[in-house]
Amino acid sequence: MGNPLSPEMLRKIDAYWRAANYLSVGQIYLFDNPLLKRPLTISDVKPRLLGHWGTTPGLNFIYVHLNRVIREYDLNMIFIAGPGHGGPALVANSYLEGTYSELYPYVTQDEQGMKRLFKRFSFPGGVGSHAGAETPGSIHEGGELGYCLAHAYGAAFDNPDLIVACVVGDGEAETGPLAASWHSNKYLNPVTDGAVLPILHLNGYKISNPTILARIPREELEQLFRGYGYDPHMVDGDDPERMHQQMAAALEEVITKISNIQKTARENGFQKRPIWPMIILKTPKGWTGPKEVDGLPVEGTFRAHQVPLSDLAARPHHLATLEKWMKSYRPEELFDENGRLVQELAEIAPKGERRMGSNPHANGGILLRDLILPDFRDYAVAVPGPGAVEAEATRVLGAFLRDVIKLNQARRNFRVFGPDETASNRLNSVFEATDRVFTGEILPTDDHTSPNGRVMEVLSEHLCQGWLEGYLLTGRHGIFSCYEAFIHIVDSMFNQHAKWLKVSREIPWRRPIASLNYLLTSHVWRQDHNGFSHQDPGFIDLVCNKKADIIRIYLPPDANTLLSVADHCLRSRNYVNVIVAGKQPAPQWLDMEEAVRHCTAGLGIWEWASNDRGAEPDVVMACAGDVPTLETLAAVSILRQS
Fold first, then answer.
1. What percent of the chain has pLDDT over 70?
2. Which of 87, 235, 528, 549 is most open to solvent, judged by the fewest CB atoms within 10 Å of its CB?
3. Domains of the chain from N-terminus onward
4. Residue 529's pLDDT is what?
């Protein structure tokens, strides 16, 4: 497409990028003197330098170019930074666009506000170095690597007008979950879903060694992503002027292709899986930073990963290098005398909710609508007396979930997620209302599989969890059904989501989101045929380590209590709910009214199983869960007989 940027727009784009880079360096280093109005002194520098520079200029480069196409085409777009350690970039850009000051009014758009912005980064009482919940526009912290693309696709499902720009770091691309996530394009329906624009950022290095994808031939790299089903567009270089034109041209092409894919599908219906575009951006690590420090190369090497200049008090020449580095961005051209971004550059940013830092999809609670839920009592198992009948608890729940899907079909805000276990876990009834979603080749022998399903099945617990998190964080609802033993695969993902919720609760502008609901079945008690590998109840041990204002664990003893618990969990907000329930035929103990009373109280004395008759008991038998309840009642029977 040649050079799509006019000389004037090229100048403004480059200046805006320089402003973001300047603010990013300032966050890492400066305590005072934010506009360098006087010579830099050691008292202006933070006593402890923390942060990551290497990925940051690339993120800033991407962000400003996305701003341009958002304005040009009035796009609804959010930004996910897989290399979330580039937190300075997201903070800088949300500050430049004005969002940061709206949400944190004391960080004003002037010299004093810039000083506060710099000071609070990686500083006690301030904000962390990653793109956490405190960061406007973020739904992905990016501290633990591997999940950005899964979050991006989760955000795009059922959001037909949304484009999710997802930057994948070349280090993160080496993780297992990320490798699986490239296949998410086989689940994206161009008729009813939004689009994901993956931007693979090749800057060549991790903390101290090269990245794999940066060291394979270009032809091999492009073939890899064509094999995944993408149309890669390469942007490669280090000369800013040429790179601005290349990136602008690439974005023009990919936005046009996304628009054409969606237009064709929405006018003619789903025909076949499209080949979605992506961008491969290759830039030096630490681009525009110091070329070398103490005789060693920095820009374009692993040495640019974190803080390129350290020990400034002991090495005065480092202080001089820092000042020269920051002045290379020519801040006097970018900010006025009061420290505000000059007007011609401020006009580059989108306005209102089109700003990626202000997009409501990145604060999903704003868009959250309650589920329409059937009356769970209508699915009750008739229990004439304790233990008089048997039922499969999860099969009963499946009928309830089937109707949750039906009632919310028009809203398209509820999905069931699982690693190919929906039928195995006896939730088969959902297939009376929907299919498994898949946009790849579908054969006549496939069962309940179509591009329009509400059940997300892929044999990757990481991907199921990541999709669900992205779906919830953008204002929808879901449930993750999994074998109890194998939910351990996402132990660390659970930890990270719980941390996100914990921090979000403390941020006034973050709205509550729907809870993350786990249904763990095929549990430890009934796995004789599968053996030891399928026996592990330890996930609840992990969950119990979190505070009760974030997590809930439910161990319903039968089908009616499971229905009551599921209804409660689907209505809840800002929790991680773990439900453990068996799928095998088992005695039923409580009728529905008894089940509701029991669940409301949280625990209770079953008078019909007791014989203390109001006296001081000799033994108290306590239990939780279906099989433990059965075994405890059996023990009571033995005690009575003896």
1. 99
2. 528
3. 7-359 (3.40.50.970), 366-601 (3.40.50.970), 607-641 (no CATH)
4. 72
